[in-house]
Amino acid sequence: MSAALAGRRRALLSKLTGAPDPHCIDTIQSLWSGYGSLERWRLSPGQTIILKRIAPPAQASHPRGWNSDLAHRRKLNSYRVEAKWYRRTPLPGTPRQPNCVAVASLESETLLLLEDLDASGFALRVSQPDETQIELCIQWLAQFHAAHLGQSSEGLWPQGSYWHLDTRPEEWARMTDARLQGAAHWLDDQLKTCPYQTLIHGDAKLANFCFADSAVAAVDFQYVGGGVGVVDLAYLLGCAYEGPDLAKMTPYWLDRYFDLLLLALRAHPVDGADLESCWRALYPVAVADFARFLDGWAPDHWKINDYNKSLVAQLLERR
Q1: What is the DSSP letter of 124?
Q2: Would you tell me the crossing angle of helices 131-147 and 229-240 to the nearest 10 degrees?
Q3: Most buried residue, 13, 103, 197, 227, by CB count within 10 Å?
């Protein structure tokens, strides 16, 4: 990074925030495949902000070697979607996410200036969640899906999630499970044609939730778009549990999700019982759709386990 560009970045942040001398105090992490960085900046004593600095590299370096032009364009679009998302005014009932201070461009960089959730009390990150923390995440998803039920995905992904079939033809071509590969478009159609569509987060893993003592906020809206809520739920549970625990806990959390969803939908003119029936039936489809992606992307991944293999087999038998 040139000193001149760094100086122009500081000047732009000063203009956007009114801070006379903003400066970076911490690089929190690099973005996936080296597409920029997540940084904490001090604006004044006791006041910080998060800068998501998107700066696509001349040559991407994916940890599993997925460096095609299609993959590059997907990542670029994901950041355009995220910038669009943060420009939107949150709808009533939308659960906690970082407030957006500004979205700006500087030469080849896109800058997202976001509330520092750590400073706002959401400083805890977990990799081994307890039941209270999983409940908070599921409550967040239920409220998010209820708030955006029937909302347009214009400007976002028409179909949310980073693994949906339309954006993953390379992974589909490399699948080893021929039967699942042959069912891929059928699974995708089941999710797309459900009459109850909402907006989904699209990457609802534990790393994208920031916890307070009794609350949670979500970050990373690169893959927000249209879909059915159980896509987020299946992904969250598949990230939170390994095989035996996943099989044991899924029925409980599926019930709890719908309890919380129907509670959040009370003010909506929707047949909650019919929505629940449709989405419950699509839960194994969502599991199988993610398994389809993993089979082509990383067939040795730990998220492939006996539970989801069994669910996929049962689903395909009934097809």
Answers
A1: B
A2: 160
A3: 227
Q: Give per-residue pLDDT as tens, 236-266.
A: 999 999 889 999 999 999 999 999 999 999 9
For the chain, what percent of residues have pLDDT higher than 90? Answer: 86
Residues 6+ apart with CB under 8 A from 184: 165, 172, 175, 289, 292
Q: What stretch of H or E contains 176?
A: none
Residue of 72, 70, 288, 60 whose CA lies nearest to 170: 70
With contact defined as beta carbons under 8 Å apart, do 227 and 282 qualify?
no
Token duo for residue 93:
């009932």
First to last CA, the chain: 54
Q: What CATH homologous superfamily does 3-115 map to?
A: Phosphorylase Kinase; domain 1 (3.30.200.20)
Provide the pairing of β-strand 36-44 with 209-211.
Answer: unpaired
> CB–CB of 148/91 below 8 Å?
yes
Distance CA 17, CA 130 (A): 38
DSSP state of 167: G
Tell me what pLDDT residue 32 has: 85
- Confidence band for 274, pLDDT divided at 50, 70 and 90: very high
CB atoms within 10 A of CB 94: 16
- Residue type for 251, please? P
Going by pLDDT thresholds of 50, 70 and 90, the confidence category of residue 1 is low
Tokens of 240: 């939170």
Question: At a CB cut-off of 8 Å and minimum separation 6, what does 36 contact?
Answer: 30, 52, 53, 54, 55, 56, 109
Tens of pLDDT, residues 26-56: 999 999 888 999 999 999 999 999 999 999 8
- What is d(CA 204, CA 237) in angstroms, rounded to the nearest whole number? 9
What is the percentage of the chain residues whose pLDDT exceeds 70?
97
The domains of the chain are located at 3-115, 131-318
Under CATH, to which class is 131-318 assigned?
alpha beta
